[in-house]
Input
Amino acid sequence: MAKALPPLTWFRSFEAAARRLSSTAAADEIGLTQSAVSQQIRALETRLGVVLFHRHARGLSLTDEGRKLLPQVEAALEMLETAASPYLTEKKARHITVAASISIIEWVIAPALPRFGTQHPETSVRFVSTIWPDEYAASRADIEIRFGSEKQVGKNAVPLQPNRLIPVKAPSLVGDLQTLPLIESVGTSDSWASWSDVTGQQVGHPTYFVDSYGLALQLAVAGNGVALVNSIIAAHAVKTGAVQPAFDQPAAASEGYFLSVQRDSASVTEFADWFSDLVRFQARV
Output
């Protein structure tokens, strides 16, 4: 049976002492006491049956055997460090998964994401575009940004505010709500008809129908008409001048966006807080 190898810590002490030619300096570098380093080096010499250092009053010098061993130990330690590096980096990095609609990712998160990256460079974020409940379940996300009524999204979801409907159009588009084409997002409880009932503003029948607020906003940016969208989705486009409100009075939305945190960790909390603040400050249009 092969004789057991000396412990790795003995080789670490030898390598550090050989490089620094001082057991005291080696101890400071690797976080041990000077006596522990000296004991480990002597134990290694005993196990190998050779003397590795000449001991002097003011330091150490390598013997011929020590000079032969050093490059091999250095190469072995470097190989171990290279092998372990990907796993150490994986543990040090922080990864989170965010599930949200394409509208939220494209119009709300994406414009502000560089700021989050600057503030939290150690966190990587994976985005999963989702709409239906089964898609959220399949995503196994740490954070879910859902759309619907409070009953639909679940008890643990926190409503994002403000939650309003605003009509928006391209600045170059001339006309009013009675003459311009109207763009309506289907699949929600909020329509041009319900908005008209709440505000008392007369509107015509929609010309274009889409399946998301994000697509409605994209059509409005391109000058195709007036889109009725959630203020959270429209905030950045309004602030940058891509669109402008087509009516001064916003209306409360019957459905909205909710934030649901699925895992408790520092990185998840940081992203959830950042996103909540982003919505609160940018969606006031």
